[in-house]
Amino acid sequence: MSRSIDYYFFMISPFAYLGSRELERIAGVHAARVNVKPVKVQTVFQETGGVPPAQRAKPRQDYRFIELERWSRERGLPITLEPKYFPVNDDLAAGAVHAANATGGDPLALAHALLAACWAGERDVSDPPTVREIAEATGHDGAQLMDAATGEAAQQAFQTTTREAIDRGVFGSPWYIVEGEPFWGQDRLDFVERKLAQG
């Protein structure tokens, strides 16, 4: 029986970006399905006591930059520590990923491309032409996906998945659940892989 990973993340999360390719690799090695579930950062923070990076104490902000640089080197992925378009509204980007999931697209590839656009390309993932271009570059029908991304079904899926995540104990990004066991942070992907290997 195929294993699965429930993958909850914020569309503007640098750590989700840094873990995305490794998650894809792990899923491929273990023939696991990745259930791609973008969630609303503001709602998760409001309901679980999270604080946006800019509002954190300076030592926490400084250490976050150290970790981002460290994991950028470890994963071999470029990163801009303070990108021009961060933070931005994530409704459109999340809606596009939910729409890709609903229409048989490749939500994991699209999610990675959008995260990379923010954190490596300094592009605005709240901008419709930008999101459309990224969608097309990942093999999606840009016009169709953009219509669906802003539609009621995709935005309702975004809200529903956010509530589902909170109800399951999610309070940060990225967050992985394998057979009921939670793992917070892309630095826990080794444990995700061990969990998959058990089966």
Task: Describe what you observe in this structure.
- With 199 residues, this protein is of the alpha+beta class.
- The chain has a single domain, classed as Glutaredoxin (3-Layer(aba) Sandwich).
- The protein is built from nine helices and four strands.
- The chain has helices at residues 14-29, 41-48, 58-75, 91-102, 107-119, 128-137, 142-149, 152-167, 189-198, and strands at 4-9, 33-38, 175-178, 181-184.
- The chain has a four-stranded mixed β-sheet, with helices on both faces.
- Helix 1 links the parallel strand 1 (4-9) and strand 2 (33-38).
- Helix 6 (128-137) crosses helix 7.
- The longest helix has 18 residues, at 58-75.
- The chain is globular and about 40 Å long.
- The chain starts with a strand and ends with a helix.
Helix proportion = 55-70%
Radius of gyration: 16 Å
Number of domains: 1
Strand order of the largest sheet: 2-1-3-4
Main sheet: strands, sense, barrel: 4 strands, mixed
What is the H/E string?
EHEHHHHHHHEEH
- The CATH superfamily turns out to be Glutaredoxin
